[in-house]
Amino acid sequence: MTKLAINSAADMQAFGSALAQSAQPHDLLLLKGDLGAGKTTMTQGFGRELGIRRPVKSPTFTLVREYREGRMPLFHMDFYRLEGDDLASIDLNDYLSEEGVVIIEWPQVIQADLPSDFLELVLTRVDDSWDSTKRLLELRPHGQRAEAWAKQASDLYQAQK
């Protein structure tokens, strides 16, 4: 497990960019953290690095946002409001089999049904100030590909600082 200090929204997006630079098709990224922890901010940097030109927005109310432009597709999901049979309306296996990256915010409700190789990021606020952008980012890789991805992204991010 690797821990990184993130001091601003720009740093969070820079880390997202580093993740995207080292991403490969079929990568799965799980984002955990309280509301406002920076999950979507990180995904914005990821999307921009892939070459997505339109704004990357939170999929909280739509469950899934698809971005099929750039270097590879990005499927951004948010299961915070997932209820009952909502997951049945999403063919997660189809998304995971596409030549893109799947990023899931609030994956706790479906984590048992996911593949065993994924990178989990846990974002934690460093202080309780409502306007603070300081975060602690924990990279928790599960599987060989996730181990390599976490190391590459961490090395890239630290080299850019």
Automatic annotation (TrEMBL):
<protein>
    <recommendedName>
        <fullName>tRNA threonylcarbamoyladenosine biosynthesis protein TsaE</fullName>
    </recommendedName>
</protein>
<comment type="similarity">
    <text>Belongs to the TsaE family.</text>
</comment>
<dbReference type="Pfam" id="PF02367">
    <property type="entry name" value="TsaE"/>
</dbReference>
<keyword id="KW-0819">tRNA processing</keyword>
<keyword id="KW-0479">Metal-binding</keyword>
<keyword id="KW-0547">Nucleotide-binding</keyword>
<dbReference type="InterPro" id="IPR027417">
    <property type="entry name" value="P-loop_NTPase"/>
</dbReference>
<keyword id="KW-0963">Cytoplasm</keyword>
<dbReference type="InterPro" id="IPR003442">
    <property type="entry name" value="T6A_TsaE"/>
</dbReference>
<keyword id="KW-0460">Magnesium</keyword>
<keyword id="KW-0067">ATP-binding</keyword>
